[in-house]
Structures are given as structure tokens and as C-alpha cells.
Amino acid sequence: xxxxTILNVGFDDTDSSKxxxxxxxxxxxxxxxxKQKTEFLDFPRLIRFNPNIPWKTRGNxxxxxxxxxxxxxxxxxxxKNLVAKYSDIKNGxxxxxxxxxxxxxxxxxINFSNLALWQLINRNNAKRFAKKNNLEIFxxxxxxxxxxxxGAIGYDFHDHTLELLSYRKKPxxxxxxxxxxxxxxxxxxxxxxxxxxxxxTKRGRVLIxxxxxxxxxxxxxxxxxxxxxxxxxxxxxxxxxxxYMIFKSNQGTGDHLKNELNFENMKPYASGKITxxxxxLPKIVKGGHVFFKILSxxxxxxxxxxxxxxxxxxxxxxxxxxxxxxxxGVRKASxxxxxxxxxxxxxxxDLQKNISKSNPLCKKCDKKMKSKGQNQGFQCIRCGxxxxxxxxxxxxxxxxxxxxxxxxxxxxxxTRPLQRxxxxxxxAKFDKSLSWFCIYRN
Length: 442
Ligand SMILES: [Zn+2]
What we know:
Blueprint: E1 5-12, H1 22-35, E2 39-40, E3 45-48, E4 61-69, H2 72-86, E5 96-101, H3 107-118, H4 123-132, E6 136-139, H5 145-154, E7 161-168, H6 181-191, E8 195-196, E9 199-200, E10 205-206, E11 216-222, H7 225-234, E12 241-249, E13 271-278, E14 283-284, E15 290-296, E16 299-305, H8 312-316, E17 323-331, E18 340-350, E19 354-358, E20 361-362, E21 367-368, E22 370-371, E23 378-379, E24 386-387, E25 391-395, E26 403-404, E27 437-439
Parallel strand pairs: 3-12, 16-18
Antiparallel strand pairs: 1-4, 1-5, 2-4, 3-4, 5-6, 7-11, 7-12, 8-11, 9-10, 12-27, 13-15, 13-17, 14-15, 15-16, 17-18, 18-26, 19-25, 20-21, 22-23, 23-24
Helix pairs in contact: 1-2, 3-5, 4-5, 6-7
């Protein structure tokens, strides 16, 4: 009897904006391993890392799988070949592939993964990490993909969602995706809240189909396998698909914004949240974008809320003294602005009273009094009644103490949607009998 070992495989950065997709590579790898009756110990894991890194294509996602095998060296060779075959190196992909044989994941891995959620991690750090921890690594291009490959193995779930990704047959790659809009709408009605962000009811737009040349036909995000499979039965399209795979993911968990930003860690491209007091009157610039400052731990931080998020109006109604918590990504300083936080959520914790002062009112005549000159008080020009002070009036606030999220069309993969606020999914346990992988026979 040969000894069985547990093998973790992580890979990242195999795609480019021109085609291919790391999840499709995962689908191909799983297909190959399934044919050899390899035992899977978990769903394939699709981990999204810091989305505010400028050069990352499509959502910064890496994949890892965990399997049990008697022949790890054969499997490693097969996977290496597939990674080489399906990586879009000529269009700028920098694939990284990592093998780690162990059932448990050391804390150093988890720490590395946590940092990659919100920081910019240099590829040399990943190479050093691999050396120090005796990892088997392979990379092409500059090796930036090693960061996600290590991170995907190290990621420690506290909450998760699932995504069912369906793949097209090869002749359809790059062609328009045709799916019945009505069927997506009905699917959402029937499966929500066990699925999320499938259809934008306000704008009548389908959100499950990507628009690029990649092999994904649609992706349905949700909380459990049954709801996702039910969703595929409701969706209607004439296109014959190749198959689907269900990933376990940190999408929809708000993972990248858990980190507390401060003066020290607010490096360019970092993500996180910060609590503070609005310290100036928000400025609305051309295009409807809103800029303001918050004061937190004796430092001022500029914040930007862009019009397409749909929460720029909320930001424009903030006043000095409001207490808020904002989450987002740090943009590099430019000629006109210092470092600035691009806001992805705005949580209003406390609202200042909006007090306005004006000349006092003569109650008898119901008319505003006139000023008699500086420090001379006020007088009614009709009846002569005098008053010494201006009157204060409270203007009602147009915003509430609540969490404001961007509209669905502006959500990122990691954005925690409103329906997931306060919920943690621990139910989607992996079980070999689940239909998490399927090649259609047609
Ligand atoms: Zn009067």
C-alpha cells in the first residue's frame, strides 16, 4: 500500500485582459484529476485579494485546491503542464504555481494571505517566503502570480460564499453571451437571499455574465450548493455549455476592508477602513464626484466618492463634525491631491446638528428684522421691535445614521452586499457527494 499525501496547489495570474481565466484553468485541472479519481478534500477555493492593485486584471483572484493522492509527483507534472498551456503569457500574464504537501496550514501562510488581502505584496517577498518555507514553486514572467498562489493556499475562511461558474465550449470563446434577461430576474426572485447580485432590478441589467473574451458564460454567487444548482435550472440560454464548477470564495465578505487604516499603514494601493470626524465641507467637483477630509487620530485624510458609486450625494450631504467610518482603497498622491481614499462604503455613525443662523423674526409682523449695524442688534422696520441676537434654526439632515453601500453595478467581487451584512456562512460544508463539478453531456 502506497502512502497517501495531502497536496495543496495554489495558482494565480494566469489570465490577461485578452482572454483566459484562472478559474478556467482550475476547471481544466479538476477535470483531469477527476478522471483519475483523485480525492478532493474541499471545494476549489477562489480567493480574491486586494482589488486596489492597479496592474491586476479582473478582480485579483487566485485559486487553490486540496487533494489526497498516492502519486503527488505525477499530479504535479500534470498540473505544471496545464498551467503552462493555459496561461496567457504573451498577453502579460505572470503565472505562479505553488505546491505544499501538508494537511494543516502553518500560521505563516495565513499571515501572508491576510496581508495580501489589503496590501501590495512585492513578488520578491513571495519568493523569499517560498524559500524559507521550502515550497515547490514555478513561475513565468516576473512571478507576481506567486503572491496569490501562496495566499490562496494560506487563506483561512471565517465566512464564505460559493460561486458556480459555468464555462463555454471553445468555439464560443469571445462571442457574445446570450441569456434570457427574464430568466435571470426570475432566478434571483426564486433563489435570493441564497444567491446574490445576479440582477440589477433598478436598471434591469444582468450581472452574472462577464463581458470579456474569457471562457466563463455566467457566474452565480450564493450561499449553498443546492441554491446554485437550482439557479442553473431556471436560467435560460440557447448556448450549449461545457460544464460548471462551484468554488468556495471570500467574495461578498468585505474581506479587504476589515483592516484599520492609519497614518502609518496608509500606503498607496492599501485597502481598509478608517473612522473619523468630517473636517471640512465636502466639495462637489465637475462630474459629480465628491471630496472631503476626515480627521482620525490627529491626522487628516482625504476621501473621494465617485459619481458611479451612487453614494456621492450622501457624501455631499455630510457636514463638519459628522462621525463616519469609511472603507476603500488608497490612491497614490497626484499633482492636485495628497493620498486619497477611494470610498467603497460609508457608514454614518453620528450626525452633527446642522445649525444655521439668521436675522431674528418679528413674531408680531412675521417679518425678518434688519440689522442695525455691527453689534448694534436688530429691529423690525414695520413695528420697531428690537432684538439683540440672531436666531438659530436647525436644518433637517438629508442623510441618516446608517451604512451606505455603492449601487450593485459598482460592487466589487469582495463587496459585502447589504443582504450579507451581519451574516456569516458556515453551512456550506464540503462533501464528496455534492454536485460541485459537472461536465455536461451534450
Ligand atoms: Zn414688527
